[in-house]
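Support case: user asked for a sample of complex input and structure output to validate their parser. Sending the pair below.
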Amino acid sequence: MPNDHKMADGIFNKRDTSRVTMTDVGRLAGVTQVTVSRALSHPDKVSKDTLRRIQDAIDATGFVPNAVAGALASKRSNLVSALIPSLTNVVYTSFMATFSQHLRQHGYQVLLSETGFDAASEDALIATHLSRRPDAILLTGIHHSDKARKQLQGAGIPVVEIWDITDDPIDICVGFNHHAAGRAVAEYLKAKGHAFAATITADDERALRRQSAFAERFTALSQSAVPDANTGGTASIGAGREAMAHLIDHSDFRKGAVFCSSDLSAHGAIIELHTRGYKVPQDIAVVGFGDQDFAGDIDPALTTVAVDRLQLGHLAANSVLDKLAGRPTKSVHDLGFKILTRLSA
Amino acid sequence: MPNDHKMADGIFNKRDTSRVTMTDVGRLAGVTQVTVSRALSHPDKVSKDTLRRIQDAIDATGFVPNAVAGALASKRSNLVSALIPSLTNVVYTSFMATFSQHLRQHGYQVLLSETGFDAASEDALIATHLSRRPDAILLTGIHHSDKARKQLQGAGIPVVEIWDITDDPIDICVGFNHHAAGRAVAEYLKAKGHAFAATITADDERALRRQSAFAERFTALSQSAVPDANTGGTASIGAGREAMAHLIDHSDFRKGAVFCSSDLSAHGAIIELHTRGYKVPQDIAVVGFGDQDFAGDIDPALTTVAVDRLQLGHLAANSVLDKLAGRPTKSVHDLGFKILTRLSA
DNA sequence: CAGCGTAATGTATGCGCATACATTTTTGAT
DNA sequence: ATCAAAAATGTATGCGCATACATTACGCTG
């Protein structure tokens, strides 16, 4: 594929002519480049005295190692690529925060990109990322194009897929069973005595799978159809309000429970219900998904499906580190989920 | 500084022995490495026929260019570094989404890290990022250590500071005047007839500056002290509730207006007021900050201070691109702000 | 058809570092 | 004091690509 980007081409490209290298530092410290390199990556192999002189030379020159050259020579970039659907969705970014922090402690940096729920742009991004020769790569979800799978396998690096599980991961996956989660919520609400239910779902493949599992199971249990309001784009309070309004205005759903694909839309649904005079959960119960930080702080406190995101972050990071270190690793990690009963359902 | 990270050291380091290079592609297409390189970056300088053969060879081999080697040879990484305080705060991530997208269209990738509101870790991160030889770097805020400034200047690349303005930027800054925003809110609330006010502020340097400007101005206008509830960490609905509760329980603030450092804490404050039976804005008015996507969707709709984040993203990206292309650029961009009057104040 | 400009490709080189291997210096045990 | 092992440092080399420069193959003008 020819490179069709416009390349920047200005005065700043001429910089670097004067940048300090290990050779410069070495000259100042009276040693060669190799010793400087060693002083930085294997300080125990360099005498106390030279170490000090090199350190002084580094301070004096303001030397900043060139990780690009280092990566080329060593074939290790200390970079881990990560692709997430959205940069603004806390569900993904809070995971990333944990993941990055954990990896940083082991000397790795994370190169993060947003794929935007779009398969085509994911393919392009995977190629771009692989060109940076990351030491590992993390993807969201388990559905990737054949081309992507091929490139990933060809890269010969650990690949972690998160937020979902499958028996056939590219390499490693860490997540939970969305189908089971949908079913579980259906059973929970049925057990609570609800005869009717509806769903509010965002345009997210995993959310849609939870929704369909929920609808299928709830219909089986209660013999009543489950209307769905698709919020169209990504979940938000506004989208949740709109969807709730739509359900009330355009379906015969008037009492029962609503299963939302996100805590955000659940929160929006509750706000809409309140402004219309419905009581939650007495008139209509609401279940969210994700257990976001605010779930316990709204009124009524939100009943929701919780997945241990901290553990997700740790497991994903550890899997990467284990693989990189050649330690044995499980290829499928099922985090499970938990229905957190609060007051809204 | 010696590298004290544990280095991963496992089986995966041996990979790459078999990775396809331009030389391999060239051999298959009957040309040399140079022609392959040209085919990729200057396709117009290669004949139609060879171009096709090279393309075929690329497809056949699954060649993925090595951007690391490219960067070393060309001294351009096509990377732009970005440091933001928090990955989970939509205020920063929504900016990043715009910024990254814009730069991606011009062939640049963004290397994003979270600094965590902590100056020491910012210094370390700046060094790490500079070692990757980014073509430009973006920082949040205008307060950086001397060491950081020195390193940044030595890097000889465009530096953009966002979310704040100063007469003395390292290179370029894009933001607005937080002091002026605080004053403006004070004047707005005074004009609305409020004689009393309080503030709810998170532990964020810029938020604290808005708060102190607000308090100073409001006190000057109304001769009444402005109690503050610091939420301690980062803003959230929960922190807002707690702070509001604290104000009511532990100060003599009972009526008037509350200026919150974030829409999130404002939302929390409103929830707390509602559960305690206060009417918003009749009993207590609430002003937020940031105009997050939900601000208009809660009840009552939130009056807040809006900054054009989209424009911030575009301006920051364009400034970088202009600098890189050697075009003339303004060094200080004041975005201004706007008080968005809705129902909560 | 000489002569020259242009298009198309190739050759040579080095970016800054890590690493294998070679050499020198130091240490300690006898 | 002697020698082998260990510690400390150096030499040589190449990672994969971009770029300056050299070469070759073709037109085209007069």
